[in-house]
Amino acid sequence: MEISWVAVATPLPTGPMQLAVTPLGVAAASYAGESFAGLPIGVPRCTDPRKVEAVQGRLAEYFAGRCREFGLPIDWRFASGPHRKVLQRLLSDVGYGRTITYGELASRSGVFEDVAEPGLAARTVGQMMGANPLALLVPCHRVVAADGLGGFGGGPSGMETKRWLLTLEGVLPPTLDWNGPTGD
What we know:
By secondary structure, the protein is an alpha+beta fold. The chain has 2 domains: 4-63; 81-168, Winged helix-like DNA-binding domain superfamily/Winged helix DNA-binding domain (Arc Repressor Mutant, subunit A, Orthogonal Bundle). The chain is 32% helix and 12% strand. The protein has helices spanning 49-63, 81-93, 102-109, 120-130, 158-168, and strands spanning 4-8, 17-22, 25-31, 100-101, 143-144. The strands form 2 sheets. It has a 3-stranded antiparallel sheet, covered by helices on one side. A two-stranded parallel sheet has the order 4-5. A hairpin with a 2-residue loop joins strand 2 (17-22) and strand 3 (25-31). It is globular and about 50 Å long.
């Protein structure tokens, strides 16, 4: 498995991100050093300057408010079956500055057509978002509860991170302590 890591400085409450890259594209993204799939986060470091520049550059543009799509190739190796189908639907249907509820995403994905128990599909989508290996690139921060923001991973600062990202994208109004781009 050819995986190396690119560290990206961010203005997020969780601090820097680590993104796993392969010959096919970005395979994983981690807030605050969260691990998944048993991979050691950050080791080995990517030594391909083109990949490092592409990943760091696109994320820097996003955090500065200058791009709305990352345009980076994605390696889906850590998402399969229904999880992958839901994540791909999220990526294709819910663009910058928009949100979708867990239940709406469940319905649009087509994965839960045979689920009769009320709320089960929405709860399952919530769990899928919590296990999203491609955080930020596949924008699970845009998936919200029917009655509020819902949850978010990313360690102790997870909900602050979700609020920060939704504020950057114009979904939520900035607060007095907003430290994002000013739009100048």
